[in-house]
Amino acid sequence: MNAFALWARNNAWTNAVLAGACEGLSPAEYGARRTGFFPSIRATWNHLHAVDRFYIDALDGGGRGHRVWDDVPDFATAGTLRPAQAAQDARLIVLRERLTETAAARPLDLDRGPKGMIRERVDLVLWHLFQHQIHHRGQIHAMLAGTAVAPPQLDEFFLPSDRNPTNPFAATAVPDDGRAGAGGPAVQPSRNSSRA
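Above: the chain sequence. Below: its structure as tokens.
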């Protein structure tokens, strides 16, 4: 499985876990003003979903371009956001699992509206999308810490020894070849390095 497909699965799992936690908030708590790049958990999730729609449409050849922004949904609760986000995440998994190395390096024209068509590269758009998701999910996670809902663990995906066996995305993400926990470090520390 290629790195893009692994990150797509991680993205789907993390979104599902975080949105699931946010479902524990009342609509008022979900939309309450908080400190973050966007002023609420609701606004941040809506932004994430809207940006995903834009990039996935471009990557998948949907053809909507800048018109995607004409009908951005405003999800009032995590319960209404979650299935729509899951559908986007599933679309991204399919797209990334069929992505070849050659296709990843091809140019991709993004419709930036008044700025015109901007030429980027498929792989760089994918990495940007992942980074965008991580950036804003971290803000949601931090805002959630100011509520009665505990922020969930979001980093137990890639290592077989960390994986939750009920995680449908991670269970097939990286096969456990029996070497987990065996042997020494892959990179030997230098004599001057400090141990964490």
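The CA atoms of residues 160 and 180 lie 7 Å apart.
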